[in-house]
Amino acid sequence: MKSTTTLIITTVALIVAGVAYWYFFTGTGNQPPLSTDIPTNVAQMQFETLVGELEPVSFNVGIFSDARFNALVDITTSVSPESFGRLDPLAPISGGSDL
Amino acid sequence: MKNSIASDNKALAAAITYATQQNELAAARNAIDPADLNRLVAFLPSSVDNVGLILDLNALAARSGLALSNIDVMTTAVVSKGNDSTLAPTNPVGSVNLALSAVGTYTALQAFLRGVETSQRLLDIRELVVKGSDTGVYTYQMKITLYWLR
């Protein structure tokens, strides 16, 4: 009877030890999942969406050969720099000593 | 891990697409004659520069025989494409209204209007009110819209 109990306890201990070895040392029980759901950056998603909406752009340079555009006249007035006036422009004009 | 790599590859492909298109646009822009580009900038400048334009209009009026006065810059609302201004992209072309008064003969007015019409800077005369006179010198009130690229 005593030997049977000892045998059962030994068998159970071996089984527990085997399970513990398998779980902790073989690495098959606690492997991380192969795929994880990493939150994608919002700015990255927005950039990818905008790039996906890009359409081919081309410049229509026909305006440069249009006679109406070429007939337009530049009315820009050149502004020449002026020299500084008197230090006190409100002072009465006298002999020019305050220039 | 695999998802992260796929996401990075996707972002990298998008960046390459963006850079390629940017380079294509830059190459197309560089292929345009700089003189033509300058004319285009004068036609639709990237800033309002209403002070410079007032100087130009004043000089044009003086050459035409008109005397300008009471030049006023009127504020205009932002024009947007579509009904919802918060979501719709704004119009890339902005506009500012100028109200001004002028005094001169009809011939001078004709010359001034011709100058505005053929101006390289895009201008529109929206309103023109003429006050009659027996002297042949009339008073004009105009509203001119000028445009610029935002």
Question: Can you put this structure into words, describing what you see?
Answer:
- With 99 residues, chain A is mainly α.
- Chain A has a domain of 61 residues.
- Chain A is 40% helix and 0% strand.
- Chain A is built from three helices and no strands.
- The model of chain A has no long low-confidence stretch (mean pLDDT 79).
- With 150 residues, chain B is α+β, with helices and mostly antiparallel strands.
- Chain B folds into two domains: 30 residues; 106 residues, Ribosomal protein S6/Translation elongation factor EF1B (Alpha-Beta Plaits, 2-Layer Sandwich).
- Helix content of chain B is 44%, strand content 27%.
- Chain B contains four helices and four strands.
- A four-stranded antiparallel beta sheet of chain B has the order 1-2-4-3.
- In chain B, helix 3 packs across helix 4.
- The radius of gyration of chain B is 23 Å and the shape is elongated.
- About 5% of the residues of chain B have low confidence.
- The interface between A and B is medium-sized, with 28 and 34 residues.
Major pleated sheet of chain B: 4 strands, antiparallel
| Percentage of residues in helical conformation of chain B | 40-55%
> Helix segment count of chain B?
4
Biggest interface goes to:
A-B, 28 and 34 residues
Give the terminus-to-terminus CA distance of chain A.
129 Å
Q: How many β strands of chain A by DSSP?
A: 0
Q: What would the principal axes of the Cα set say about the shape of chain A?
A: elongated
User: Strand percentage of chain B, roughly?
Assistant: 25-35%
- Written as H for each helix and E for each strand, in order along the chain, the element string of chain B is HHHEEHEE
CATH architect. name of the largest domain in chain B? 2-Layer Sandwich
